[in-house]
What does this fold into?
Amino acid sequence: MRTDTGQIFRLEDYRPSAYLIPETELIFRLSPEATRVTATLTVERREGAPVDAPLVLDGDGLQLVRLEIDGDAATADACEVSADRLAIILPPAADRFRLLIETEMAPARNEALMGLYRSNGVYCTQCEAEGFRRITYFLDRPDILSVYTVRVEAEREHAPLLLSNGNPVEHGDLGEGRHYAVWHDPFPKPSYLFALVAGDLGKVSDRFVTMSGREVELGIYVEHGKEKLAGYAMDALKRSMRWDEEVFGREYDLSVFNIVAVSDFNMGAMENKGLNIFNDKYVLADSETATDADFANIEAIIAHEYFHNWTGNRITCRDWFQLCLKEGLTVYRDHEFSADQRSRAVKRIAEVRTLRAHQFPEDQGPLAHPVRPRRYREINNFYTATVYEKGSEVVRMIRTILGAEAFRAGMDLYFQRHDGEAATIEDFLKVFEDASGQDLSQFALWYQQAGTPHLAIASAYDAARQELTLEIEQSLPPTPSEARKRLMHIPLAFGLVGQDGSDLAYQAADGATVENGIIHVHKRRHTVRFSGVAERPALSLNRGFSAPITLSVEQSPQDQIFLAGNDSDAFSRWQAFNTLLSEALIAGCRTVLGGGTPQFAPWLGDLAGRIAGDETLEPAYRALSLNLPGEADIAREIGKDIDPNAIFQAREALARALAEGNRPAFEALYHRLRDNRAFSPDAASAGRRALRNCLLDYLALLPGGAGLAAEHFHSATNMTDRAAALAVLAHRHAGSPEAIEALAAFERAYAHDPLVMDKWFQIQAAAPGPQALETVRTLCAHPAFSMTNPNRLRALVGTFSAANQTGFHRPDGEGYRFFTETVLETEKRNPQMAARLATALRSWRSLEPTRQARARAALLSLAAGAQSADLKDIVERTLA
Ligand code: B3K
Ligand code: ZN
It folds into this structure.
């Protein structure tokens, strides 16, 4: 574990380095316990840098074996060496020199999964953000772009496959059972994009002809025997490549593109140049083992990593503060890709749900930070929903403000102007200003200020004058270390919906702030006057979620109900119903806390029934609408004094009321949706399954529900239906013979498939109620569980702590105690994973006093036990 220096890095401290490394040659002599890495670096003094500037290279836990400067062994007075740093105190006077550095490491004992490690017998690397310094001493920062040539040597028997970035150059035999391969990547790249893979894997091959007619060999490498599970990923890759050509004019640039699936991986995947490395969860899929959500994730992540080739690799980040430059933009691109491949409306609703579930709590809690943070202690803790998801929303707003054409012109200019560079957010905004002539200086605050802006909107309609007035007030809640905020530019898409459901015509009196259906809010208070409005409209606001904000609108429930049934904007229509559900749940929760039984207005049930049966709406959309806000969503809306048990009870009561009120219609639709055709992962088929499984979730609450779910489970012909039924049984009918039997049957069938067993762990970890802790403790001892595998940990411990409100937040604090033990245990091997798990307590201050005190005690004991910069950083910020 790297020693925690407590050092804080600041955006304003950025300085270009005195030296550059235009060329990097690496030789890997692989062996599990003693791998030798010989790095030959061509070092150049930057123009204008002082001749006597020391060259300070980053390391992390390295063991130096040999050091030569221009062919001579380095003398002790010329350099200072430690595991974490190599300083050449007296560099040669020449402007250019060569440094040879030999290090030794044990990939088999690297459980942090950063740098070079072994996963299931396969050597692989993970270098972003600062893993390359665990391989060799280097200027390990993203603005040092180097051309890499890599030679990999290994035993042929264990590693017939030798891969690195770029194009293959040569390979051959070394005798004594060893062989080698050489790879050259002509595109200068930062060290975080370096990758190597060596092992014995099966291959799926294909080819792609680019828009200019160049042929690219595509390879996806997976465990032997799993080749047939990589077909969907390969198809998604080819669709991504074509889409980037068609929509952004971006062509692939090497003659090979390889993807390797590994089973131990800290995150989803990594965009290393020409050699993406993936968590196997996001590659392997067929109908028997993967759910529709898995297929959608695979498609999105394959696309995301591929799109990084231009947004991230060809144009990279000057420093890690600019992380959103590649991540926010690439998420925006993968969102657009999925919207084009699937249903745009459904995709948008899902994106907003994710943003609210993950980014809003971040913005509202102690870990809030701007899309472009200004300081960090451990950069790996900033791969957050704010940088990724809000970062994507900021790019989407640029497009909304500029329009499609100017946005594309700006993107073209970005690629043209900055190709081959390490750029900044300022560079990014400038291309859009130059392409459109618009001033984006106020808009730039979206990158600089943390927190979710709020708009409060009141309206008045004057029937005699046919005038509508909107009073808009902008406010920005304070966030840690940013007490005072500046006013933002918020693009608010809207519609004035008339009684027949169509949008009413209007003239906007204040033309400067209203254009093309968007109110541009720049000030604290805006009054917007519309004339020529023929009738009193229902207000459809923040259509398509045009800005990532919260909104309070003075609007009658009648208008909300009307919009939920009639808004022509699919997102806002979903939002209207979701708001009604959310309000009912919050009221229900208050009733529970007051000792009563929640009652719900019958019209809510009628509306749910109408949406379920509306054949003009896509099934996937209907499923999203009928999915009640989650317990965490309700907690977030309530904001303080949270009692997860009260929320759970209110939610159960509403689900039961909707099910009882619609029983015959839900049953009929449930049976009609049964699909006897062969499985297809396409969005329309997935949508029908989603609706049917959502109806099952309701019907399972009624008498006979366990039997229905068991029947659904046993007759399922794909994993989507099987896992959905298992969750219904384990959550709604925990302990019933049907649930026990189904869990056992699932375990028997999939005991040897770790990715499927993750679903089994996950479903049980999410089962509501205090007994979940006991279950999770027991499952920690299950033979299929492993503390060293991130997917297993996330499935069991991650799910329990981040997605089981009633189980984790037990009032006796036992959930937190288990959590503290597990996080500290994880930290010993994998600090990054531990820090990620620890974020589950970020909203502790919104809990009611008893739980809050226990959560604080847990955080304090984590703080006392933490050793790594990763975990200390999260815990200390959470407590601050
Ligand atoms: N760039 C990687 C994430 C690296 C995380 C390092 N802690 C995957 C991605 O966003 O595409
Ligand atoms: Zn990314």
The chain has 27 helices and 33 strands.
